[in-house]
Amino acid sequence: MLAMQRHNSSGIFTTLPPSNETAPIFCNASLPQTNPTAAGITMTLGIVFNVVALIILAKAYTRFRRRSKATFLLFASSLVATDLAGHVINGALVLRRYSEGTANLADPPCGFQGDLITDPDVPCLFLGCCMVFFGLCPLFLGCVMAAERCLGVSKPLLHARLVTNARTKMALALIWLLALCVALLPFFSLGAYTPQYPGTWCFIRVMEGTQATDLAFVTLFSGLAFSSLAVAFLCNTISGITLVRARIKKKTSSQRSSARSHDTEMMVQLVGIMVASCICWSPLLVFGLMSATRSYSNTLGSDRDTYRALMMTGVRMATCNQILDPWVYILLRRAVLKKIYRITKRQASLKGSMLRSFRWDVSSFQNSEINNDKI
Q1: Which of 111, 123, 255, 256 has the smallest C-beta neighbourhood within 10 Å, fewest atoms?
Q2: How many CB atoms lie under 10 A from the CB of residue 273?
Q3: What is the spatial distance between Cα 101 and Cα 374, in angstroms, rounded to a whole number?
């Protein structure tokens, strides 16, 4: 088999030597029938939920813009806006690939993942770049939000002195810039973006023809993502312990109790963000790293189909994270939690009264039987 010659002006495209491990994956005979309905529904739901959450956060920000909660709301609004942009841009690019069909990747001779025979697939490169950027941004934002709340709960005076509106906006710009720099690394010869099975989405090259730079890139991506989740977990744990201790001691004034109530609400939301991110992103991060490692060492073999299915599952779960994030703010608000608490308390009291009434009826029946026996 001849070596696959590719465009290499940006460093993304290289000339790959012939290899026994390089096997065709996009052939007309083996391509599954893809249906854009699920992708369209997911995109629509994500847009609607994020818009609703953004409206709720905007209204809350106008009420609390002079309080310590304003910083958290600004970060949260930026997170929802980022999720919304990711849904619109990534969803549009995926639907475009659906509309074009994956057969264009299987024109004779059959294509190879990461080895386009003709000119580079620019929309695929852009989609891969967006996948990395909009994947890292929410994780970075969740980490910074947890760190900001940890400082606000444990060191409120230091937080008031260090955290300002201008510095918050600067932190947001740095987060987006860092995620963008990582996403652009393949354009500087570190890794590559390629179509992923079944050709409807693009990501880091992890399945076929994986090179050392690809392995380094996916390791960097996964390492940054897992580090963000770990830091968020640590900061949320410290904040939670601090709030529990403050509640147990009960040495706060009524004004401080109100502040603690807001802190508790923000902590519940942060924990929701962290749990959703861990559940939704861990599969793609783990499977991507495992696929790249095995592909680089030429040990995928017959497990290639299994890893393709795992990668598909991972990216679908990662997409769900952008749908779950807005629900954290829609459902885990103090007003909603109070309503849930009141309903639960009302149901508990109703069950208690019914139980007491049942006990009274039983005892009355027993007493009546005893009196009848005496007569």
Answers
A1: 255
A2: 27
A3: 89
